[in-house]
Amino acid sequence: EPEVTQTPSHQVTQMGQEVILRCVPISNHLYFYWYRQILGQKVEFLVSFYNNEISEKSEIFDDQFSVERPDGSNFTLKIRSTKLEDSAMYFCASSEEGVTEAFFGQGTRLTVV
Amino acid sequence: KNEVEQSPQNLTAQEGEFITINCSYSVGISALHWLQQHPGGGIVSLFMLSSGKKKHGRLIATINIQEKHSSLHITASHPRDSAVYICARGTGSEKLVFGKGTKLTVNP
User: What is the pLDDT of residue A76?
Assistant: First the structure.
C-alpha cells in the first residue's frame, strides 16, 4: 500500500541550528502538507503546498520556516534557526486533491536543546 | 471560533465493550475526518465523511450535518484499539483543523 515516508524519525539539534525535515509523499498525490504537534497538544496546521507553491500557511509558519519540493519526489520543511519551542512532532501529509483524504507520514520528532 | 470539540478526553473500557467517541464543530465543513494516532505517534486516517454513515470492520462513523456533530463507534472493542482518536474538520481549503483527541484504553 502506498505510504508517506518521513526522515529522520527523530532529530536532536542545538538551538539556533538549521534543520531540514524530509518527506516523500505518495507518488500520484498533488497536495502536500506539514503539520506539527507539540507534546501533549493537538495537531496544528503549518502549511499546504500545491503546484510548486504555498497555497495556505498558518500564523505559526513565519519567516523561519520554508518548504520546498526540490525534485519530483521529495518535500522538505526547513527551519532556519531553531528555537526551543520548535520542539515537536512534525507530520507530513499528502492528498490526491485538496479536499480528499490526507495520508500522513509517521512523523519526525524534533528536539531542540 | 473554528474549534473542534471532542468528548470524552479519556475513555477506559473493558474488552468487548461498545465504544462511542463524540465530536462537535462550530462552523460549516467540507468533510469530517476521523484519525487514529498510535502510541508511537503515527497518524492513520480512518474515515472521511460529509454525510450519513461509513463502516469499516468494527469501526462506524456517523455525521449529522444539521447538528454539526459526528460520532465514532467501535464495536467489540479490543486492547489493540487502544490509541488516541482524533476528529478533524475539513475547512473547504486544503487544511484540516484538529480536535484534541480522545485517549482510548481497552483493558483485557
Answer: 97
Residue B80 and residue B60 in contact, taking contact as beta carbons nearer than 8 Å: no
CB-based contacts of A4, cutoff 8 Å, min separation 6: A23, A24, A25, A26, A92, A93, A94, A103, A104, A105
CA Rg, chain B, in Å? 13
DSSP character at residue A28: T
Partner-chain residue, chosen from A45, A100, A101, that has the shortest CB–CB distance to B95: A45
Q: Find the CB nearest B43 among A55, A91, A100.
A: A91
Whether residue B12 contacts residue B105, with contact meaning beta carbons closer than 8 Å, is answered with yes
Interface test with A, best of B95, B97, B100, B102 (most A CBs within 10 A): B95
- Tens-place pLDDT, residues B50-69: 999 999 999 999 999 999 99
Amino acid in the structure at residue B48 = M
Interchain pair A33, B100: CB under 8 A? no
Q: Chain B closest CA to A109's CA: distance in Å?
A: 9
